[in-house]
Structure formats: C-alpha cells, structure tokens
Amino acid sequence: MPKEASSGRTGRPNGALGADFTAFGGFAPPGIEAAVRAGNAWMKGVGSLNEEMISFSQEQLSKCVEAGQSLLRCSSVEQAITMQCDLARNTIESCYREAGKLFTMTSDIARAALTQEERTESASAASAGED
After folding, report:
1. Phi/psi of residue 13, each to 5°?
2. What's the CA gap between 53 and 40, in Å, rounded?
3. Residue 72: closest CA among 85, 62, 83, 61
4. Using CA atoms, how far apart are residues 114 and 72, in angstroms rounded to an integer?
5. CA quadruple 114, 119, 124, 125: dihedral positive or negative?
6. How many C-alpha atoms does 101 have within 13 Å on its Cβ side?
7. SS in 3 state form for the chain?
8. What span, in angstroms and rounded, lies between the C-alpha atoms of 44 and 109?
9. 8 Cβ neighbours under 8 A, 6+ residues apart
10. d(CA 99, CA 22)
11. Whole-structure pTM over 0.85, yes or no?
12. Tell me: the pLDDT tens digits for 2-44?
C-alpha cells in the first residue's frame, strides 16, 4: 500500500495546521450566505440595543440615587411627597421615551437583517440569469 504524502498528525498535505474551509464556500447555497449575513446584521444590532439598555439603566440608577439624596434633605412630609411624585412622573416619562427608542431600534435591526437576506437573494437571481 502506497503511503499518502501527509505529514504529522493533521493528515493534511505538507503538515498544514488548522481546518481547511477554503473548498467549503463553493458548496454554500445562497440561502446559507443570506442567513449568515442576516445573522451578522442581527448580532450587530443586538449589540447596539444592549449598549442602549445598559446606558439607560445607568442613567436611571443615577437619577434614583440623586432623588434619594434629595429626599433625605426634605424638611417636611409634603416636600418629600412632592419630590417622590416628581420622581415617579419623570421615571415613567423617561421609560416611555426609552421604550419608543428601543422599539425603533428593534425595527431597524429587523429591517437591516431582512435587507441583507434580500440583497443576497437578488444577487443569486441575477447570477442565475447570467448562466
């Protein structure tokens, strides 16, 4: 039995290390490419969504700490109740604004992912028409 020209434990010619995925790309149908592009767009968008939520949470926590310190300085019950009502109103308003912003960001993420998929499908249809 002739011995194949492989070297080392890799079993690949010339002892090359790592996986050889160069030929794999030729077998990937356009649907897989579209899914990968859509997934990349989705993950990028989710990252920005995560950053926004963390930023908002930090901002709200800071506002609550400031409000707590202000409540400790109140000289009457009426003043404390007024301050708590203002804090509650401001918190609800900022949460409402943030919910709208997150909704818009989520819609943009979905639109970007869908656009990536459509772009790949139209490119594959164009290349199929050339054949």
Report:
1. -55, 145
2. 20
3. 83
4. 51
5. positive
6. 14
7. CCCCCCCCCCCCHHHCCCCCCCCHHHHCCHHHHHHHHHHHHHHHHHHHHHHHHHHHHHHHHHHHHHHHHHHHCCCCHHHHHHHHHHHHHHHHHHHHHHHHHHHHHHHHHHHHHHHHHHHHHHHHHHHHHHC
8. 8
9. 15
10. 44
11. no
12. 555 544 555 555 555 555 555 555 556 767 777 888 888 889 9
Q: What are phi and psi of 19, to 5 degrees?
A: -80, 145
* pLDDT tens digits, one per residue of 44-98: 999 999 999 999 999 999 999 999 999 999 999 999 999 999 999 999 999 999 9
| Residue linked to tokens 């990349």 | 40
Whole-angstrom distance, CA of residue 100 vs CA of residue 52:
12
- CA 28, CA 126: separation in Å to the nearest integer? 17
Amino acid at site 48:
S
Token look-up 């949460």 returns 95
- How far is it, in rounded angstroms, from Cα 113 to Cα 60? 31
